[in-house]
Specification:
Structural class: mainly alpha
Largest sheet: none
Number of helices: 5
InterPro entries: FluC
Catalytic activity: fluoride(in) = fluoride(out)
Shape: globular
Number of domains: 1
Helix content: over 70%
Distance between the termini: 29 Å
Order of helices and strands: HHHHH
Strand content: under 5%
Subcellular location: Cell membrane
GO molecular function: fluoride transmembrane transporter activity
Pfam families: CRCB (PF02537)
Length: 124
């Protein structure tokens, strides 16, 4: 990978992290719920966008930059797990389980939808 690509990867990672933070805060302010809808939102949107990239046949350095840099820092496994643990610790075990399973299965479904849409847009 070239030096320019590494710099672009770092820049896109920063952009993804800021976008994640702003999205999580905006969703949390609007939902007013203890359930971590912000983290769920970024993970589902990120899965959908990753599916679009895969379905559109994005490969090579472009895939590394967009999937690994931008979307890799936009989505967040660690925050998902921390939110789930926090719910369980606060005796919201059902909400913790819903968060884990909904994120997992809806995230996979979002990726599949994105892949199908990406493929459709390319006519493949």
């Amino acid at each position: 990978m070239s030096a320019a690509a590494v710099i672009a990867l770092a820049a896109l990672g920063g952009i993804g992290a800021v976008a994640r933070h702003l999205t999580v805060v905006a969703v949390a302010q609007r939902s007013g719920d203890d359930f971590p809808l912000g983290t769920l939102t970024v993970n589902l949107v990120g899965s959908l966008l990753l599916g679009l990239l895969l379905g559109a046949g994005v490969t090579g350095t472009t895939q590394i930059l967009l999937a690994g840099g931008l979307l890799g820092s936009y989505t967040t496994f660690s925050a998902w797990m921390a939110d789930s643990e926090g719910l369980a610790r606060e005796s919201h075990r059902r909400a913790a389980a819903v968060n884990i399973f909904l994120s997992l299965f809806a995230g996979f479904a979002a990726l599949l939808v994105g892949r199908a849409v990406g493929g459709f847009l390319l006519g493949t």
